[in-house]
Amino acid sequence: MIAPYDLTDIIPVATSKESDLLVTQFDGRVIEDAGVIKMDFLGLKTLTIIKDALRLIKQNHNVDIDIDYISLEDQKTFELYQRGDTNGTFQFESDGMQMYLRDLKPDKFEDLIAMNALYRPGPIEYIPKFISRKHGREAVSYDLMDMQEHLEETYGITVYQEQVMLLSQKLAGFSKGDADMLRKAMGKKQIEVLNKMKAQFMEGCNTNGHDPKIAEKVWTDWEAFAQYAFNKSHSTCYAFVAYQTAYLKANYPAEYMAAVLNNQNNIEKISFFMEECKKMGIPVLGPDINESELSFTVNKKGEVRFGMSGMKGVGEKAVESIVEEREANGLYTSVYDFARRTNSRAVSKKVYENLVYGGAFDCFGFNRAQFFFKPDGGFYNGIERLVKYTNDFQNNLNSSQASLFGGTNDAEITEPQLPECEEWGLIEKLKYEKESIGIYLTGHPLDNYKFELENFCSHQVKHLSLINRMKSTEALPEDQEEFKKISNRDLVIGGLVSACRHGTTKTGKPFGSFMLEDYGETFEIALFG
Question: What is the mean pLDDT of residues 287-298?
C-alpha cells in the first residue's frame, strides 16, 4: 500500500501474525476509495534467468546487451516462435501454446500480446478463429462498423479490457471514468455493477443511432467476456518479458540455456532442459575439475558445462576452494597435482568420491573404478592413497617452511600410483553417476536396448504419467488431446526397473512396488497380491 503520508492517519492497520509488517483491516476492494494505492509485488524467476544469461553473454562474447532496448522485429526471435521452440522461455512454453504458435506463425509483437491474453480458460476457444482471420482463411467481421477502429488489431475479436473501455466510449458515449468503472467491474467480476451499467450502455447506443438488438448482442458478448477479461497492459508486459527470453534463446542459445539450467530446483526439470539442449545441438558436458565452476557455464566452444556444486556431497565450499586455486595457479595437470594443491579441509574423502562418480576426474585418463579399487593385501584404495598423499605432502611442506633453513623436500613425498583394475560396466558406472549428479549424463542404461524399445514398444513411460494426471486435478488442457490418442488401447512399454520393494498390507496381503524408467520419465508402479 502506497500513501502520501502516514498510513495510520488514513486506514486502520494491525501487525501481521506472520511478520512485523503492517496489514490493513480494510477489505482490499475499498482501499483505493480510502486514498491508498494497492500494489502487488511478485518475485519472478524469469528475471533472474535473464540476468544470468546476460552475465554469461558478457563473459563469453564481451557483449553488453541492454535487454530493455532490444529490437522487437528480430527475425531469429520470430522464427523461434513460429517453430514453437519455446521450451525454457516465459509464458509460451506449454505444449498447447507451442501448437498454436506453429499455426499462428507470429510475425509481430502484437501477435504475442494477443496470444498471451487468449491462452487461458475461456478465451482459448477463440484462438483458432484468431489464427484463421490473421491468415485470411476466415473473413473479419464486426457487429458494428464503429467497432473496427478498436478491434482491427485483434481481427474483430474482443481480447482486452481496454478495447471494451474504448468501445463503450465510442458506441455509448461513456466518460473515461465510466469506462474505467466498467473495466474494473469486468476485471473483478462484479456482476451487480455490470447490470447497473447495462441500462446506461443501451441508452447511449440508442442515442448514437445503433440498432438496439445489435447493442444488446454486444453487451451480452461483453458479459461473457467479463468471465475472462484480460488487461492489455498486463499482457503486454508479460509478452515483453517473454520476448526478451525468446530473443536470448534465439541469439545466444548456449548462454540462455545455461541460465535456465541454473535456475531449476528439481532434477526432473534439469533433465528436461538438458534434453532440450541436445535438440538444439548444444552439447552438455559433465563436471570437469579443470573447467567446471559452481553452476552451469558455457565454454569457449559454446558447450554447456555442468557445475560442480550440483553434485551430491560436494558443496559450495569445496567448489570455491577448487576454483580459486585453479584461477590463481593454473589448470590442474594431473590428479596428483590436484592432490598437492587442494585444501584438505575443504576437499574430503567424500568429496573425492562424488567428484569421481560424476566424472570430474575423467580428464586425467584414469577409469573411475581405479579410484575405488583396493588390491589384495593393500591398505588403501585409490582415493585413500590420494587423501594420504595430500596430507603427507602438505605436512611436509608446512614443516619445511617452519624449518630454520627453509626449503622444501618435495622429493621425499612420492606420488602414489592408482591401482590398475578393469573399468566398471556401463550399468554400474551410470548408477554411480546418477547418484552423484542426479541424472545419467555420459550414457543411459537403456542404450544397449534401443532396438527393442523402438520395435517392440508402442508407448513410453510418460503415457503412464499422463494416465495418472487424468485421474487427478493436475491435468492440463493439452493432456486431454494426448489422452484421446491412447484411450482404449493396449500400451506396450519398456524401461529400466529399479527401487523394488515389497511388504504386507494391514490385512496381511502381499504388495510390491518398483520404479519403471525410460529415456524420458520415471513412474512408480504398485503391485498387489
Answer: 97
